[in-house]
C-alpha cells in the first residue's frame, strides 16, 4: 500500500469521507456481531434453555459486565415469559434480531455511501492531473510513448486505483473489525473452543497468501497489453485511408488480434488466480466449521459445558468470520492490482518536463527588436539536424526558409516556439533567452500555422476561437475572410456553427488549411510562423490566400517555411538551407543572380 502515500495529496481533499466510512464501518462491525449474538437468546427461548432469573441484576463493575448483561437479558426473558407467555418473548427476540440486522445493513450502506465520494473524487482528480500533465509534457515525450498506452493509463489504470481505494479501507477497517468483534465475542462464549479454531487460521492464511503472491506482476502485464492494443486502435483510426489504400487491413487486423490474444491469455491467468481466492477461503472456512461442529458438538452433547443456544450463536459468529476473511483475500488482490496500476499512473505524474519554466521566469508581453538564433545546434536522436546555425529576424521583416526535405526548416519553427530546446547556442527575443521566458507568454507572441491542418471535432467558430477565445462573431468572420475561408463557410448549413467532424474531415484539405490560417489571423500576434502554410491549397486558393497572408504579414515579423517557392518571392530575406546549415542568403533576385542552389530549386519547380 506504498502507493497510498504517493497519492495522499489526491486523497486529502476527501479525507472527511474516509473518516465517515471508518466510523460507519465500526458501527457495521459492532452490529454485525450483535446481530449474530442475538440469535442465542432466541434459540434458548425456543428450546426452553434460558436461565431463570427472578431478581433484577445490579451492576457492580466492568469485570462483571458479561454476567450482568446475561442476567439482565435472562431476567427480561423470565419475567416476560411468566407474565405474557413464551410466544410474546419470542416475538420480542425476533424484533430485536430484525432491528440489529437493520442497523447493521444501514451502517453498511452509509459506509459505502461515504466512500463513493472519496473514490470518485480521487478518480476525477487523478484523471484531471494526468490530462494536465499530458498537455504540459514536451512533444518529445510522445515521440517515445504510444498514445494508446497513455489512454489506457488515464482510463483503465486510474479506474483500478479507484477500486483499490475501497479495498484498502475494507482491508484495514471494515473486515478486520468485523473479525475482531466476532473473535472477542467468541472468546467470551468459550475460550477453549476459540483456541481450537485458531489452530486452523494460520494454515488458511498461508495458503491464501501463496495464491496472491504474483498478482501484481500479472496485473501489470494485463494493463501494459491493454495499452498496446489501444495504441494499435488509435493508429488505425488515424491512418485508415493509408491502411485501405495499401490493402493493409489484414496486417493491422493480425497485429490487433495478436495483442488481444495476449491480453486474453494474461487476463485469464490473472482472473483465474483471483477467482481461486474465494472458493479456497470458503472451503478452508467450511473445514474449520466442520471441525467446530465435531469439537463444539461434543462440548454440548457430552461435556455439557456449552448450551445449545450458545453453540448455535458461536457457529454463526464463526461463519461470520468467513465472509470478511474472503473479502480480505479479495481486497488484498485488488490492492496488489491497484498498486501495479498506480505505478503506471504515477510514472506519468512523476515525469519531470525538460521544458519546465525556470523559477522567476520573465513575463513578456511585447516584441520590439529582433529574434536572434545564435550559434544553435540541435538533434532529435544521434545526428545533428542543425549545426552552429545563426539567423536574425528583425521586427517587421519576413524571413523565408527554403531547402530540400530534411534540411532542418521545420525544426527552426519547433525551436523558436520552444516545443524543443536547443542542444547548444541560444535563441533570444529582444535580447532575452527564450528559456528565461514563461512559455505561455512566449507563445502568446506567436501565431503558428502548421503543415498539417490540426483541427478539432467542434464547430468552425470554436476552432477559430482558439486564437482568441473572447472574440465576437464579427471578428471570427473577418478572420475567415482574410484567410479566404468565408466563401465556403457562409455556404454551409449552419455557417460558423457547423461541426467539422473528427480532425475536420468533413472539409477538404484546402478548406482545413484556410481555417488554420484564420485561427492564426484572429490571434493577431506580433510574430507569425508559417510552416508550409499553403501546401494543402489548390492553385486558385493558394493565390488568394497568399495575397491575404502577405497583407497580414505587412509590418509583422514572419518566419515562413516554404516548399513552394512561388509563395515567398516577396520575402525580405530568403535563407537557403542544406543539412542544417545556411548555404545561401538574400532576396529572390539576389539569389537568382548567384546562380546557386536557390536557382536550381526554382528551376526544379518550373515557375516564372
TrEMBL record:
Residue ranges of domain ABC transmembrane type-1 in the record: 22-337
Keyword Transmembrane helix: yes
Positions of transmembrane segments: 22-47, 90-118, 179-208, 283-302
PROSITE patterns: ABC_TM1F, ABC_TRANSPORTER_1, ABC_TRANSPORTER_2
UniProt-recorded Gene Ontology molecular function terms: ATP binding
Entry-linked InterPro entries: AAA+_ATPase, ABC1_TM_dom, ABC1_TM_sf, ABC_transporter-like_ATP-bd, ABC_transporter-like_CS, P-loop_NTPase, Type_1_exporter
Pfam family, one: ABC_tran
Record membrane topology: Multi-pass membrane protein
Primary localization: membrane
Subcellular location: Cell membrane
Residues annotated as domain ABC transporter: 371-604
Keywords: ATP-binding, Membrane, Nucleotide-binding, Transmembrane, Transmembrane helix
SUPFAM superfamilies, alphabetized: ABC transporter transmembrane region, P-loop containing nucleoside triphosphate hydrolases
Protein name in the entry: ABC transporter ATP-binding protein
Naturally occurring in which organism (per UniProt): Geojedonia litorea
Native organism taxonomy: Bacteria, Pseudomonadati, Bacteroidota, Flavobacteriia, Flavobacteriales
